[in-house]
Structure formats: C-alpha cells, structure tokens
Amino acid sequence: xxxxxxxxxxxxxxxxxxxxxxxxxxxxxxxxxxxxxxxxxxxxxxxxxxxxxxxx
Length: 56
Fold this sequence. Notes:
A hairpin with a 6-residue loop joins strand 1 (9-17) and strand 2 (24-31). By secondary structure, this protein is mostly beta strands. The chain is built from no helices and 2 strands. The chain starts with 8 loop residues before the first strand and ends in a 25-residue tail after the last strand.
C-alpha cells in the first residue's frame, strides 16, 4: 500500500497522555482528497418545509 503512494499530507490528532505511564499519544493518518460528485436535485425531489402528509 505504501509503495503506491508518491507523497501527501498527514493529519496528527493528539490524544493526551496514556494513563499507564503518562506518555503522550497521537494518531497519525494519511489525508486523501477524494472528490465528491454532486448531482443536481430535481425540483420535486425534496419536500417543502412544513409540508406533511397525514393519513386517516
């Protein structure tokens, strides 16, 4: 998996000290940019605010 990656950015999230010995803990993760394809919503897809359908 790592040989396919030419470079990139990492995210560091600090977790605070470990309870057993007080060592500082952190999570390191690769940051990937995955573009999200957005589709246009049709006019009739979303219900209007406040509109509800009641059945009797």
